[in-house]
Here is the input.
Amino acid sequence: MTTSVRGDQLARLLGRWHALPGRRRSPDYAALAAAVRGLLSDGRLALGVRLPAERELAEALAVSRTTVSAAYRNLRETGHLTSRRGAGSWTTLPHGHRVATSGLWTPDDDLDMIDLGVAASAGPVELVPAARAAADDLPRYLGSAGYHPTGLPELRAAVAEAYSVRGVPTSAEQILITSGTQQALDLVLRLSVPVGAPVLVETPTYPNALAALAARRARISTHGLDIEAGWDGEMLLGALRQTRPRMTYVIPEFHNPTGHLMPASLRERLVATAHATGTELIVDESFVDLPLDGAQMPPPVAVFDRHSRVTSIGGMSKAYWGGLRIGWVRASAPVVQRLAAIRVGVDMASPVLEQLVAVHLLRLSAEIVAARRAQLRFRRDALVAELRDRLPEWRFITPAGGVTLWAELDGPISSALSRAAEDVGVRLAPGPRFGLDGTLERFLRLPFTLPADDLVEAVRRIASVRHDLDHAPGPSWRTPAVIA
Here is the structure.
């Protein structure tokens, strides 16, 4: 089903469209068309959305219908709008341009490369002692076949206890241990999303989630996040009501890549609307352990679930170590059993030794997570200071948690900048990787998981190539990099 946007909603997204820098001398219709194109390129206005009728938008903007009509005509001429008499006008991109979000290859390791494509930290010092302790525990399990499709009982109990402490009473039977958060998402999609089913995701969003949805051949609709305000609750819930998707995927805690934290009021309304529309919610809590500024965390989305509409997924990649492939699903006990049945046909079970390592690490969670937060806070502040010093024209909000900063660049140059940065030893994740159909070229994700000195040096190199980018030669073919 096509999503539509009302005149007052589009007016709110456009903001001060008539007073944008450099546009004061342009006709109103040209400034309006340019502002709509900006929303499309930034991903705040999704593709395939039906725009309001000319009269409705004119009233919402307090301009003449002639101005809106001319703006729509301009958008059609540039390929950003497709109209059909009697049916309306839909947002598009010129020439049907699309950017794939899957098929990434792993690049060769390069010790001189500063890799900002992967938003994950090195392992904690407690990892080796935990591995040794796990090896000592292993003989207890050697008498069995070693297959535990739902996970080791003691690890399931530890994860369940962590949910209960956060205010969501949870039993071990409601936990499925997986080989990382990505497998948790994949299993839930296999269970809940038939091929071709409609789904709703945020834009920007985690690129490997888009890849998983593409593998299911899902019909994806998007809700755009604002770089400053995050979610527009009215438009998010409106998209749910209009499209009535089979499933909605959200990252409410320190969203990847924008770093936003969803307020409690919207969490409650999101669950209620999902119930009303028959939508399953997949809530990715990968960054929930990483508030950096001491702010009070809102309750988990599952707190508001009364009808088994919420499936939570998480793991140990971000707060602990990505090389420890331990993730989980929290759902009702019957759903966990159904997921385990699917999981047997995928990889049987997670490794016993890694699960035992996870048990020992979770026992030290208070110390490990506190150290990780302090480390990330220091690195974030170093990155922010260097960006403001060397690239002051870039716009961003300092994230209050998580591991990524989402920067709005001084032009639609994200992909070109990423290619240029590769030549000076910096690997970047350009904005289009986090959206659909070639949008988000004005944005760049910058994780702050590397040492502060590396982040400062990376910004210095990025700034050095940015100033020559407008006169750089054409791009050459490169090996795609992993974005994680």
